[in-house]
Protein backbone atom coordinates (compact mmCIF):
# COMPACT_ATOMS: atom_id res chain seq x y z
CA UNK A 1 0.00 0.00 0.00
CA UNK A 2 1.33 3.40 -0.91
CA UNK A 3 0.29 6.54 0.90
CA UNK A 4 1.09 10.05 1.90
CA UNK A 5 1.55 11.49 5.35
CA UNK A 6 -1.02 10.12 7.79
CA UNK A 7 -1.74 10.77 11.44
CA UNK A 8 0.16 7.75 12.74
CA UNK A 9 3.23 8.27 10.56
CA UNK A 10 6.53 8.29 12.46
CA UNK A 11 7.32 11.71 13.90
CA UNK A 12 10.54 12.05 11.89
CA UNK A 13 8.53 11.59 8.71
CA UNK A 14 5.82 14.06 9.68
CA UNK A 15 8.17 16.70 10.99
CA UNK A 16 11.56 16.16 9.37
CA UNK A 17 14.31 18.31 10.83
CA UNK A 18 17.53 16.61 9.77
CA UNK A 19 19.98 18.17 7.36
CA UNK A 20 18.54 15.93 4.63
CA UNK A 21 15.60 18.33 4.51
CA UNK A 22 17.59 21.50 4.00
CA UNK A 23 17.54 23.28 0.70
CA UNK A 24 21.35 23.04 0.46
CA UNK A 25 21.52 19.27 0.57
CA UNK A 26 18.68 18.91 -1.91
CA UNK A 27 20.25 21.35 -4.39
CA UNK A 28 23.69 19.71 -4.42
CA UNK A 29 22.37 16.26 -5.25
CA UNK A 30 19.98 17.38 -7.95
CA UNK A 31 22.70 19.35 -9.72
CA UNK A 32 25.50 16.80 -9.35
CA UNK A 33 23.35 14.05 -10.88
CA UNK A 34 22.29 16.48 -13.62
CA UNK A 35 18.60 16.01 -12.88
CA UNK A 36 18.76 19.76 -13.15
CA UNK A 37 18.71 20.58 -16.06
CA UNK A 38 18.01 17.19 -17.71
CA UNK A 39 14.49 16.84 -16.26
CA UNK A 40 13.60 20.03 -14.37
CA UNK A 41 14.91 23.58 -14.30
CA UNK A 42 15.38 23.90 -10.55
CA UNK A 43 15.40 21.45 -7.63
CA UNK A 44 12.34 20.91 -5.46
CA UNK A 45 11.97 23.02 -2.35
CA UNK A 46 11.30 19.99 -0.13
CA UNK A 47 12.07 16.31 0.06
CA UNK A 48 9.86 13.27 -0.41
CA UNK A 49 10.45 10.33 1.89
CA UNK A 50 10.39 7.17 -0.23
CA UNK A 51 10.14 3.88 1.68
CA UNK A 52 10.28 0.46 0.00
CA UNK A 53 9.99 -2.71 2.11
CA UNK A 54 13.73 -3.39 1.93
CA UNK A 55 15.25 -0.01 1.20
CA UNK A 56 14.80 3.68 2.03
CA UNK A 57 15.71 6.21 -0.65
CA UNK A 58 18.05 9.09 0.25
CA UNK A 59 18.83 11.17 -2.86
CA UNK A 60 20.79 8.58 -4.81
CA UNK A 61 21.81 6.42 -1.87
CA UNK A 62 21.96 3.49 -1.81
CA UNK A 63 22.29 2.10 -5.34
CA UNK A 64 19.34 -0.28 -5.59
CA UNK A 65 18.43 -3.32 -7.64
CA UNK A 66 15.11 -3.52 -9.50
CA UNK A 67 14.01 -6.51 -7.43
CA UNK A 68 14.02 -4.19 -4.38
CA UNK A 69 11.64 -1.64 -5.89
CA UNK A 70 9.16 -3.72 -7.86
CA UNK A 71 6.16 -2.68 -5.73
CA UNK A 72 4.94 0.90 -5.11
CA UNK A 73 6.68 2.56 -2.17
CA UNK A 74 5.17 4.42 0.71
CA UNK A 75 5.53 8.14 0.05
CA UNK A 76 5.62 10.79 2.76
CA UNK A 77 6.15 14.51 2.69
CA UNK A 78 6.28 17.27 5.26
CA UNK A 79 2.89 18.46 6.42
CA UNK A 80 2.37 22.13 5.62
CA UNK A 81 -1.10 22.63 4.19
CA UNK A 82 -4.37 20.75 4.15
CA UNK A 83 -6.97 20.83 1.41
CA UNK A 84 -4.32 20.91 -1.33
CA UNK A 85 -4.38 18.54 -4.31
CA UNK A 86 -1.06 17.18 -5.58
CA UNK A 87 0.40 15.28 -8.52
CA UNK A 88 3.12 12.66 -8.03
CA UNK A 89 5.32 11.19 -10.72
CA UNK A 90 8.24 8.77 -11.05
CA UNK A 91 10.31 8.74 -14.23
CA UNK A 92 13.55 7.56 -15.80
CA UNK A 93 15.29 10.03 -18.14
CA UNK A 94 17.92 7.43 -19.11
CA UNK A 95 15.91 5.11 -21.37
CA UNK A 96 17.23 2.95 -22.84
CA UNK A 97 20.59 4.20 -21.48
CA UNK A 98 22.02 7.42 -20.17
CA UNK A 99 24.25 7.84 -23.23
CA UNK A 100 21.46 7.03 -25.68
CA UNK A 101 18.31 8.26 -23.99
CA UNK A 102 16.09 8.58 -27.06
CA UNK A 103 13.16 6.93 -25.24
CA UNK A 104 13.42 9.09 -22.12
CA UNK A 105 11.75 10.27 -20.08
CA UNK A 106 10.21 6.87 -19.38
CA UNK A 107 7.13 7.25 -17.20
CA UNK A 108 6.99 4.81 -14.27
CA UNK A 109 4.19 6.25 -12.16
CA UNK A 110 1.77 9.17 -12.37
CA UNK A 111 -0.97 10.01 -9.87
CA UNK A 112 -3.03 13.19 -9.85
CA UNK A 113 -5.58 14.75 -7.51
CA UNK A 114 -3.93 13.43 -4.35
CA UNK A 115 -5.99 14.91 -1.52
CA UNK A 116 -5.06 14.90 2.16
CA UNK A 117 -1.77 13.19 1.31
CA UNK A 118 -3.44 9.87 0.39
CA UNK A 119 -1.63 8.73 -2.74
CA UNK A 120 -3.69 5.55 -3.06
CA UNK A 121 -6.88 7.63 -3.34
CA UNK A 122 -5.64 9.83 -6.16
CA UNK A 123 -6.38 9.49 -9.86
CA UNK A 124 -3.91 6.92 -11.19
CA UNK A 125 -2.92 8.07 -14.66
CA UNK A 126 -0.05 5.60 -15.02
CA UNK A 127 0.09 2.52 -12.82
CA UNK A 128 3.35 1.92 -11.00
CA UNK A 129 6.11 -0.07 -12.65
CA UNK A 130 9.45 -0.52 -10.93
CA UNK A 131 12.93 0.17 -12.21
CA UNK A 132 13.77 -1.68 -15.42
CA UNK A 133 17.23 -0.75 -16.72
CA UNK A 134 18.16 -3.10 -19.58
CA UNK A 135 21.16 -5.35 -19.22
CA UNK A 136 24.45 -3.61 -19.95
CA UNK A 137 23.09 -0.04 -19.82
CA UNK A 138 24.65 0.93 -16.49
CA UNK A 139 23.00 3.06 -13.84
CA UNK A 140 19.68 4.77 -14.51
CA UNK A 141 18.26 7.69 -12.52
CA UNK A 142 14.74 7.23 -11.12
CA UNK A 143 13.20 10.51 -10.07
CA UNK A 144 10.15 11.22 -7.90
CA UNK A 145 8.52 14.64 -8.14
CA UNK A 146 5.55 16.04 -6.27
CA UNK A 147 3.65 19.11 -7.54
CA UNK A 148 0.96 21.16 -5.88
CA UNK A 149 -2.06 21.59 -8.14
CA UNK A 150 -3.96 24.86 -8.38
CA UNK A 151 -7.18 22.90 -7.75
CA UNK A 152 -8.75 19.52 -8.35
CA UNK A 153 -8.30 18.84 -12.05
CA UNK A 154 -9.51 16.79 -14.98
CA UNK A 155 -6.48 15.18 -16.61
CA UNK A 156 -7.04 14.62 -20.29
CA UNK A 157 -4.59 11.72 -20.52
CA UNK A 158 -4.74 8.10 -21.63
CA UNK A 159 -4.53 5.95 -18.52
CA UNK A 160 -1.67 3.47 -18.60
CA UNK A 161 -1.75 0.01 -17.04
CA UNK A 162 1.28 -1.88 -15.75
CA UNK A 163 0.75 -4.58 -18.36
CA UNK A 164 1.91 -2.74 -21.48
CA UNK A 165 4.73 -0.34 -22.26
CA UNK A 166 3.19 1.84 -24.96
CA UNK A 167 2.60 5.45 -23.92
CA UNK A 168 5.31 5.54 -21.28
CA UNK A 169 8.17 6.41 -23.61
CA UNK A 170 9.26 9.99 -24.44
CA UNK A 171 7.28 11.50 -21.60
CA UNK A 172 8.14 15.06 -20.57
CA UNK A 173 7.37 16.18 -17.04
CA UNK A 174 8.20 19.74 -18.06
CA UNK A 175 5.48 19.68 -20.71
CA UNK A 176 3.01 17.95 -18.42
CA UNK A 177 3.57 20.50 -15.67
CA UNK A 178 3.19 23.36 -18.16
CA UNK A 179 0.01 21.87 -19.63
CA UNK A 180 -1.68 21.66 -16.24
CA UNK A 181 -0.07 24.76 -14.71
CA UNK A 182 1.62 22.82 -11.92
CA UNK A 183 4.57 25.16 -11.56
CA UNK A 184 7.83 23.94 -10.05
CA UNK A 185 8.16 20.71 -8.03
CA UNK A 186 7.18 21.05 -4.39
CA UNK A 187 9.15 18.00 -3.23
CA UNK A 188 11.26 15.22 -4.69
CA UNK A 189 13.72 12.38 -4.27
CA UNK A 190 15.60 9.96 -6.52
CA UNK A 191 17.62 6.78 -6.67
CA UNK A 192 19.88 5.03 -9.13
CA UNK A 193 19.50 1.41 -10.16
CA UNK A 194 21.17 -1.10 -12.43
CA UNK A 195 20.07 -4.35 -14.01
CA UNK A 196 19.21 -7.50 -12.15
CA UNK A 197 17.23 -10.55 -13.31
CA UNK A 198 13.88 -9.09 -12.25
CA UNK A 199 14.15 -6.69 -15.22
CA UNK A 200 13.55 -9.60 -17.62
CA UNK A 201 10.33 -10.39 -15.78
CA UNK A 202 9.21 -6.74 -15.86
CA UNK A 203 9.96 -6.39 -19.58
CA UNK A 204 7.95 -9.54 -20.27
CA UNK A 205 5.05 -8.11 -18.22
CA UNK A 206 5.20 -4.89 -20.28
CA UNK A 207 5.44 -6.90 -23.52
CA UNK A 208 8.79 -5.38 -24.35
CA UNK A 209 10.05 -8.85 -25.31
What proportion of the residues is helical, as a percent range?
10-25%
Q: Taking strands numbered 1, 2, ... along the chain, how are they ordered across the largest sheet?
A: 1-9-8-5-6-7
Helices and strands, in N-to-C order? Answer: HHHEEEEEEEEHEH
Can you say what the CATH homologous superfamily is? PEBP-like
- Please count the beta strands (DSSP E, at least 2 residues each): 9
Question: Mean pLDDT across all residues, rounded?
Answer: 87
Helical segment count: 5
Return the CATH class.
Answer: Alpha Beta
- Proportion in β-strands: 15-25%
Taking the alpha carbons of the first and last residues, their distance comes to 29 Å
- What is the alpha-carbon Rg in Å? 16 Å
The biggest beta sheet, please? 6 strands, mixed
What is the structural class?
Answer: alpha+beta
Write a structural description.
The protein is an alpha+beta fold and 209 residues long. The chain has a single domain, classed as PEBP-like (Phosphatidylethanolamine-binding Protein, Alpha-Beta Complex), CATH 3.90.280.10. 16% of the residues lie in helices and 22% in strands. The chain has a 6-stranded mixed sheet, with no helix packed on it. A 3-stranded antiparallel sheet has the order 3-2-4, with no helix packed on it. The two termini are 29 Å apart. Residues 1-24 have low confidence and may be disordered.
Amino acid sequence: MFKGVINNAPKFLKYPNSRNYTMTSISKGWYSKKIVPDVIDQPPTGKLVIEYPDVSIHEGYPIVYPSQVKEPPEVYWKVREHGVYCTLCMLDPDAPSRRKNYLGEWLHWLVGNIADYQVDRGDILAEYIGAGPPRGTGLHRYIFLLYKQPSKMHFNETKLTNQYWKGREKFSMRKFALKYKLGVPYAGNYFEAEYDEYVDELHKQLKLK
